[in-house]
Design goal:
With 368 residues, this protein is of the alpha/beta class. It has 16 helices and five strands. It has a five-stranded parallel β-sheet, with helices on both faces.
Length: 368
């Protein structure tokens, strides 16, 4: 019954995280340099990666194209390769570190009169920093003064920074949908402090639907679009201070609050029920038991995120993506279903949650 593949926070491909593909405005000449950087990444060769940056610039590619169409494109490919089981988690981490080193090799000019000041940060508990760094470096290249705060910035610390620096705008990045409740709190807190908020990253939906739902002042699908939007003029000023439930009135049913608050118990009781219903689970090794509990925890996390924004597609999408990853690793899709059945039994008094689980089970069943 163990379906573990890797911790979701390390999943850098497809459905959840990783730098977005190059936008349609990229430089077509970048492909050959992206292939060279990919070779350097596979070899784990930092020096070769830095050489690619220098050679591409010397060949006439501008720094933004190297950043987004070479380094960004390679990072996206890393995620695709991981999801297809052609790259390990360790290989993904190595590749990300090499891409970070390649970014550091880009020239950093100092504008005489910056366009304005922008804070770029990942929302609390969001560890995937490279997409946010691509935004920060693109803005720097275009003449903005940028305060890049990196991964998982607690909202209280973000607000303190805003009060000290007075940015014209704040860009918040999130890759995993499970961070949406924290992202919402960050958006409303930043807006209450004064500056408008632009969001980006796969957590907010491919079309930005969750950014709009959570009250963000703007959304951008990639680094170029974010820079273009800021260059087009000031973002709209935030609406007057308001409460979270003003954006999400469905939270009044308390399902999100109660399911999120009991998540540890749900995982524990579902795992114990697995042992009772399927005797072979009792014979799992300690590692298999740990992995199974982690898998159940991820399922509950995505269920609660879906409840928060009232979007069952977050939950069904996660299950579908997980099924694809499992299939690439030779694990049958039906391994997911018993856990869903038992979790649904635990949530008999929560109609929205049960409906989401039913939709997820139906989506998986069509794959059998």
């Amino acid at each position: 019954m163990s379906i573990h593949t890797a911790d979701v926070d390390d999943r850098s491909g497809g459905h959840h995280v990783g730098a977005r593909p190059t936008s349609s405005h990229g430089d077509e000449r970048a492909a050959r340099w992206a292939d060279r950087l990919w070779s350097a990444v596979l070899a784990g060769d930092n020096h070769a990666a830095v050489d690619v940056v220098g050679d591409a610039l010397g060949a006439g590619l501008d720094a933004e194209a190297v950043l987004l169409d070479v380094i960004g494109a390679v990072q996206h490919r890393v995620g695709v390769e991981w999801a297809a089981n052609r790259m390990s988690v360790a290989g993904e981490h190595t590749a990300t570190a090499i891409n970070d080193r390649a970014i550091a090799a880009l020239p950093t000019g100092r504008p005489g009169a910056p366009r304005g000041r922008v804070t770029v940060a990942c929302v609390d508990q969001e560890w995937h920093a490279l997409p946010a760094r691509l935004v920060a470096e693109t803005l720097r290249l275009r003449g903005w003064q940028v305060d890049y705060l990196g991964a998982q910035v607690p909202t209280a610390h973000l607000i303190g920074h805003i009060h000290r620096t007075g940015p014209d705008a704040v860009c918040l990045s999130g890759s995993l949908a499970t961070r949406l409740p924290l992202a919402h709190r960050a958006i409303t807190a930043v807006q209450a402090a004064g500056p408008p908020v632009m969001t980006g990253g796969l957590a907010f939906g491919a079309d930005g639907r969750y950014a709009r739902l959570l009250g963000a002042d703007a959304w951008a699908p990639d680094a170029r679009a974010a820079a273009d939007r800021l260059a087009a003029g000031p973002l709209p000023r935030p609406a007057p201070a308001h409460q979270v439930i003003d954006d999400l009135p469905h939270l009044g049913d308390q399902e999100y609050t109660m399911v999120a608050g009991s998540s540890a118990r749900l995982v524990r009781d579902t795992f114990h029920a697995l042992q009772e219903r399927f005797p072979f689970v009792r014979d799992y090794t300690d590692e298999q038991r740990e992995h199974t509990a982690e898998d159940l925890a991820h399922i509950v996390d995505f269920l609660t995120a879906a409840l928060y924004v009232d979007a069952p597609e977050i939950f069904t999408g996660f299950l579908g993506w997980t099924a694809d990853v499992l299939s690439a690793r030779g694990v049958p899709v039906q391994a997911l279903i018993p856990g869903l059945d038992l979790l649904e039994e635990q949530l008999r008094d929560f109609p929205r949650a049960r409906n989401y689980i039913g939709a997820g089970r139906d989506a998986l069943t069509t794959r059998l």
